[in-house]
Structure formats: C-alpha cells, structure tokens
Design brief:
This protein is α+β, with helices and mostly antiparallel strands. It has a single domain, classed as Peptide Deformylase (Alpha-Beta Complex), CATH 3.90.45.10. It has 3 helices and 8 strands. The strands form 2 sheets. A 5-stranded antiparallel sheet has the order 1-2-3-6-7, sandwiched between helices. A 3-stranded mixed sheet has the order 4-5-8. Helices cover 27% and strands 33% of the residues.
C-alpha cells in the first residue's frame, strides 16, 4: 500500500529514526510499500522511512531503473565540495542550491542483513546525504545559512498559501 508523504511542518520529519534491529517480513513489506510510494510520487529518486511517518532507519531509491534499499546507513567518509540544486518530496516544488561533500562512503545493511558499502559522488552521493539527513531529523532548510533559510521558508510558505497550481521554484546559492 502506498503511504502519504509527510510534508514540512509534520513533527515526524524532525525526529531521529531508530535503527532497525530485526530485518524480517514486516521490514520487507515496508520496503515494498516505500517503493510503491516512491513510484507514485512521480518525481522522487529516493525515500526515507520518516517521510512516510515510520521512524526506522530505512532508505529506498530508484535511480536508472535500479531499485535498492539500505538499512541503518551511515556516512563513514566524505570529501570534496559540490553545490547542487536539491529538491525534497517533503518540501514539494521548492529547489535550493546546497553545498555538501561531493564524495561519500556509506555503509549499512541490505534486506538480507548483509553489510553493503557504496562509495559514490555527485547525484548518488547527494541522494545518500539527503536521505540520511531525513533519518536524523534534518531537512534541507537546516543545511542553509540563516539568511537563505529565512528566504526559502518564506518562499515555501507563499507557495503553500497559493490557491492555484504551483510552479516549481529554484532558489540559487
């Protein structure tokens, strides 16, 4: 079953998710539902469990027709810098330039409980950092300097108050 994606202002998005201690059928069903929710979003690349109100450290992604899952992911190394325009299913239609490390090394578990490791950069590196932030109760607004954060929050509120269709907006660095 597809879940409703929680949006900015929902307190679940600001809470830290708990590690998964038992990878079982319930977790596998949740992952299937997360993929369904992601597909129905039409615009997302990845989804963290807190975005659907489940406080567990689970991330799914579908990039280049490859569906993958990581459980209890952690960034163990990072380097470089890269500015990229980020969007978020929980902050719809707003894209902001954010500076993050370019390369990350991420470790976690797959659905069989095996340790997995991804050394990635650019878009994949950005995806992991963004989704792991969700597991820690951090949103893209929290990654912005205070003046830009205020402007982005103001823009987002205006978009939410709009009565007609909202065009996606981009706030440069």
């Amino acid at each position: 079953m597809a879940y409703e994606i929680r949006t900015y202002g929902d307190p679940v998005l600001k809470s830290q998710a708990a590690p998964v201690t038992d990878i079982n059928g319930k977790v596998a069903r949740l992952v299937d539902d997360m993929f369904l929710t992601l597909r129905e979003s039409d615009s997302g690349l990845a989804l963290a469990a807190p975005q659907i109100g489940v406080q567990k450290q689970i991330v799914v992604w579908d990039i280049d027709d490859e569906q993958r899952t990581i459980i209890n992911p952690q960034i163990v190394e990072s380097d470089g810098e890269w500015v990229y325009s980020e969007g978020c299913l929980s902050i719809p239609d707003l894209y902001v330039d954010i500076l993050r490390p370019d390369r990350v090394l991420v470790r976690g578990l797959d659905l069989d409980g095996n340790e997995v490791e991804f050394e990635v950069n650019e878009l994949m590196g950005r995806m992991f950092q963004h989704e792991i932030d969700h597991l820690n109760g951090v949103l893209m607004f929290d990654r912005m300097p205070s003046d830009r954060r205020k402007a982005a929050l103001s823009e987002y509120r205006q978009m939410q108050e709009s009565t007609g269709p909202v065009e996606p907006r981009h706030l440069p660095l």
